[in-house]
């Protein structure tokens, strides 16, 4: 879909499920395991980021996974949902559910490329390029990134993991 000399953005296919699962675990742990790894965290990532779950997301007719790669190496992905009402704007059903760039490739513009490609897919599939997402309040790097791209805050949401709650900010593109 998009070409930036050596990086390419394309829709994920069934064969990408293993790589998407492995990348998700790496990025999730790097981003959120602030105090190291404990059993709750391990249970969460190993249950959530399986090849089977990624294959289900790739096959979801109300979703789309866009990935960015270099040659045949996965560098990051965006997971889009077209049927996910925003908690504070229920008429808005376009959600960017995940945006993960492999840690050693962060800061090279790949996240920005995936945002642009996601807006194009939302527009094409729903007639509306607007979408919402959530970001952990402590994830300052991502919050800076979204601010740079013009997102605005439209409320709070909670991420729950085995009874523990973490505050997320809801952002609108
Ligand atoms: C947040 C994230 C998606 C941004 O994608 P990216 O490809 O790294 O970002 P880009 O290169 O397009 O944009 C760079 C901006 O992002 C921020 N940033 C991203 N990576 C950074 C890094 N390694 N060091 C410093 N700033 C970084 C800065 O605000 C930077 O702005 P600048 O270029 O003016 O300095 C990516 O770093 C990521 O996957 N992080 C971990 C997972 C995550 O937090 N996802 C979002 C959850 S909602």
Account of the protein in words:
This protein is α+β, with helices and mostly antiparallel strands and 173 residues long. Helices cover 35% and strands 32% of the residues. β7 and β8 (164-172) form a beta hairpin. The longest helix is centred in the last third of the chain and has 17 residues, at 110-126. Coenzyme A binds next to α1, β5, α4, β6 and α5. This is GNAT family N-acetyltransferase. It comes from Parachitinimonas caeni. Keywords: Acyltransferase, Transferase.
Beta-strand share of residues = 25-35%
Q: What's the quaternary structure here? A: single chain
User: Total number of helical segments?
Assistant: 5
Q: Domains counted in the coordinates: how many? A: 1
Report mean pLDDT, rounded to a whole number. Answer: 96
N- to C-terminal separation?
Answer: 21 Å
Q: Could you name the ranges where pLDDT drops below 50 across 5 or more consecutive residues?
A: none
CATH class: Alpha Beta
- Spatially, the strands of the biggest sheet line up as 1-2-3-4-5
User: Structural class, from helix and strand content?
Assistant: alpha+beta
Give the biggest beta sheet.
Answer: 5 strands, antiparallel
The count of DSSP E runs of length 2 or more, i.e. the number of strands, is: 8
Output the radius of gyration: 15 Å
Based on Cα principal axes, name the global outline: globular
What is the assigned CATH homologous superfamily? Gcn5-related N-acetyltransferase (GNAT)
- CATH topology tier name: Aminopeptidase
Q: What is the share of helical residues?
A: 25-40%
Q: Helix and strand string, N-terminal first?
A: EEHHHEEEHEHEE
């Amino acid at each position: 879909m998009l070409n930036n000399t050596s990086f390419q953005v394309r829709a994920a296919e069934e064969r990408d499920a293993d790589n998407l699962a492995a990348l998700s675990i790496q990025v999730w742990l790097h981003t959120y395991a602030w105090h190291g790894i404990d059993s709750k965290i391990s249970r969460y990532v190993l249950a959530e980021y399986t090849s089977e779950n990624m294959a289900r997301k790739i096959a979801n007719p109300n979703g789309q996974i866009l990935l960015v790669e270099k040659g045949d190496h996965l560098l990051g992905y965006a997971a889009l949902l077209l049927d996910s009402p925003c908690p504070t704007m229920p008429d808005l059903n376009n959600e960017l559910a995940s945006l993960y760039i492999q840690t050693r490739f962060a800061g090279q513009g790949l996240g920005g490329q995936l945002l642009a490609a996601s807006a194009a897919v939302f527009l094409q599939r729903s007639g509306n390029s607007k979408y919402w997402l959530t970001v952990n309040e402590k994830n300052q790097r991502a919050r800076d990134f979204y601010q740079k791209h013009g997102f605005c805050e439209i409320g709070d949401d909670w991420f729950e993991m085995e009874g523990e709650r973490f505050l997320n900010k809801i952002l609108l593109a």
